[in-house]
Amino acid sequence: MVKGSPKNNKWMRRYRSFFVIGIVILCSQIYLAMRFFALNKNVETQEVKWEQWSFENDIEQDIESNSAGKIKPESVDEEEAVVSQKNKKAKANQTYSLHYDDLNFTPPCKISTKDAVSAINRAKTQYCKQLISNITCLSSEGKLYPKELKGTCPSKGHITGKELGCFKDEKNFRLLSGYFGINKKSNSPHYCIKLCLQSGFPYAGVEYSNECFCGTEIPPLSSKIPDSSCNSKCPGDPHSTCGGYYAINIFQTGISKFVAQIANTEVNNVTVKPVKIVFLLTLNGRAVRQVRRLLKLLYNKNHYYYIHVDVRQDYLYRELLPLEKSLPNVRLTRKRFATIWGGASLLEMLRSCMWELLNREDWSWDFVLNISESDLPVKKVGQLTEFLALNRDRNFVKSHGREVQRFIQKQGLDKTFVECETRMWRIGDRMLPFGIQVDGGSDWIALSRKFVEYVSNPEPDDLISGLLKIFKHTLLPAESFFHTALRNSMFCDTYIDNNLHVTNWKRKLGCKCQYKHVVDWCGCSPNDFRLEDWPRILNTLTRQLYFARKFEPIINQAIILKLELWLHDLEEPSREVRNMHGYWQSIYHNNDLGVVADDGIFTLSNSIKRHVANSLPNVNSSCDLGLSKLLEVHSYHYNDSYKYTLFKFMDKKKNIIEIAVRPLSKISVNKSSNLVAHIESLTVSSEYDQKEQISRNFLRSLSPYSEPLLVYNFNMQHTTKGYNITSLWISPSGQLYDAVEFFVDETTQIGHARPVLKQPILPGELKNSAPVLRNLKTDIISIFDDIM
């Protein structure tokens, strides 16, 4: 037996506590080091994630996509932010109650998801409620959409799921740098391949168990390492490996790298056969004078003009129909749709018109180009014809210019929508099918005849048939259907990333959730061009852009006149033009079918009759101004300012009499204040356009079912002070309806304050008061009341 040294034992006893402390410190250091590397890994991947989302320049400035997908994070409207925050707080598995007492049918399945229940409860007709119920059940059972679609774009040897091996990745130099995402529940090679294929990347890679990378470039063989280095288990598939620590398993997604074609612009001394264009005009509203102006700028006897007028716009359709008799290359389709903003019917309308065009044997054309009443050309039609002739059989669409997964979420492509009651109802989430690339952007397109034949065929192939099932229940389908069909079909090498349009985007004004009355989504829309936007039009001179939007003469006609002169190389009109600065737009016509006119218009017309009868004595018995019938009502503007509303009557002897009417402001000041000096205008009206910051109810006529609001304009340029203002809404009986607070400073000079008023509103004089203003009066009139 070996006996220990007493000296050593004594030393150990003396310093035992120091040894214990040292071991604890060493273990702590090892633990902190491990945490540090893990934290460093997470921080680094988060940085990569956001860097990849900004790999494109801000190309979207010239993209027309009327959707929330166009909103940049810093320009999200406060109202939309509130909606978004509420949606985040709502849990997907929460149960909501369906109002079964309001249904005259039994839903085919149990419906408990928030969106579907809300849509059914809010729908007005039993048909719409039942349609939403049926679609919801089909979606929940997985029977609504195809699980997988196969494209026919040549893959150039790429095979879906083919493994390239395990590769060494680096923190500062990622092998796949196109897109990055983390999924701690579902990540696997199959999941990552699907994600990258959907995003348009030829390569997918899984790393560190829950990370998915996408890229366009094949990894170098010099980075390949033994397969044993990729040994992390996949959370979505325990039988597969998902890379390792800075080790990545890379696979082919089955598609080749996509490169959009470059448009030809040079003739190269070769005789080019001219092309014939069909201008497909998709029209809405009542601005018939502007439509005629557009046709005059576009008209050429060698081209064709096919017009679709919204089925609800009887006036516009009736006014344009005589064009068919005088112009053989102008036709109006008889199959009309209600083309609401974001509606699935817009895609159905485009395909229907395209198929009708293909079946017109007397029209031989090469391209279809869609435009609206808000578009105007910025180059001569001859220049457009030459450009398209150089690019025969190619297809012009504009892509979103951002990361695909973000586009899918912002565009609502991962949601199911149902269109009925001229509204798009959101009913729940969905998964897009595996096997295709998703693309989208602008719904203004120029398509070749061959591609039109392919996408509009009533007996489509499997790809188009599957896409139609998806986009039948998609918000803004025309903004993605044609792009996605192009990218995944045999026409993928004809894709040119240009929609030939320049669009006047002003995100802070155009993204105000202004379409909530027709769609369960927050959407964006471009602003109207004004004179101050003229430099944007001048910038199109050296670019392949041939149209601009949007233009509205009721907002700004001066920019339209300037553009017309510019197109004709004139500084001023070559001859005198009567009423060149005047503009008339129809509000009402007695021949309109299916249009319910505002009660306020009829009540005012009756008041006008009585006023004329009382103020104009019959000095001559043969001159009887008894107004018997209201024929038309127009809004008249001059030099971009509202002047009058014109009521056209027929008297008892069938003479036509027109009377000009305009509203009078009734504002009185209670006491002097610094705020009064900053007031430019205060009006009570309705139909406020947040995008253009103007009320479109120029006459300011209000009926019991109107939604009145206060429109304010303050001049705060010479002060840095802000004001908190309370607007009081007082009923004709003296009851306080509502109190609305708003804030005004140098950044919020123009806006509106909307009260919450229960309809029908009591007819009479409604007062709007503030501490400084005693009252701002307006009349709520009913068709049964005698108020003037």
UniProtKB/TrEMBL annotation:
<dbReference type="InterPro" id="IPR003406">
    <property type="entry name" value="Glyco_trans_14"/>
</dbReference>
<protein>
    <recommendedName>
        <fullName>protein xylosyltransferase</fullName>
        <ecNumber>2.4.2.26</ecNumber>
    </recommendedName>
</protein>
<keyword id="KW-0325">Glycoprotein</keyword>
<keyword id="KW-0333">Golgi apparatus</keyword>
<dbReference type="GO" id="GO:0030158">
    <property type="term" value="F:protein xylosyltransferase activity"/>
</dbReference>
<comment type="pathway">
    <text>Glycan metabolism; heparan sulfate biosynthesis.</text>
</comment>
<keyword id="KW-0256">Endoplasmic reticulum</keyword>
<dbReference type="GO" id="GO:0046872">
    <property type="term" value="F:metal ion binding"/>
</dbReference>
<keyword id="KW-0812">Transmembrane</keyword>
<comment type="similarity">
    <text>Belongs to the glycosyltransferase 14 family. XylT subfamily.</text>
</comment>
<dbReference type="GO" id="GO:0005789">
    <property type="term" value="C:endoplasmic reticulum membrane"/>
</dbReference>
<dbReference type="Pfam" id="PF01822">
    <property type="entry name" value="WSC"/>
</dbReference>
<keyword id="KW-1133">Transmembrane helix</keyword>
<keyword id="KW-1015">Disulfide bond</keyword>
<comment type="pathway">
    <text>Glycan metabolism; chondroitin sulfate biosynthesis.</text>
</comment>
<keyword id="KW-0328">Glycosyltransferase</keyword>
<dbReference type="GO" id="GO:0050650">
    <property type="term" value="P:chondroitin sulfate proteoglycan biosynthetic process"/>
</dbReference>
<keyword id="KW-0479">Metal-binding</keyword>
<dbReference type="InterPro" id="IPR043538">
    <property type="entry name" value="XYLT"/>
</dbReference>
<dbReference type="GO" id="GO:0015012">
    <property type="term" value="P:heparan sulfate proteoglycan biosynthetic process"/>
</dbReference>
<dbReference type="InterPro" id="IPR024448">
    <property type="entry name" value="XylT_C"/>
</dbReference>
<keyword id="KW-0808">Transferase</keyword>
<dbReference type="GO" id="GO:0000139">
    <property type="term" value="C:Golgi membrane"/>
</dbReference>
<dbReference type="Pfam" id="PF02485">
    <property type="entry name" value="Branch"/>
</dbReference>
<keyword id="KW-0472">Membrane</keyword>
<feature type="domain" description="WSC">
    <location>
        <begin position="160"/>
        <end position="254"/>
    </location>
</feature>
<dbReference type="Pfam" id="PF12529">
    <property type="entry name" value="Xylo_C"/>
</dbReference>
<dbReference type="InterPro" id="IPR002889">
    <property type="entry name" value="WSC_carb-bd"/>
</dbReference>
<keyword id="KW-0735">Signal-anchor</keyword>
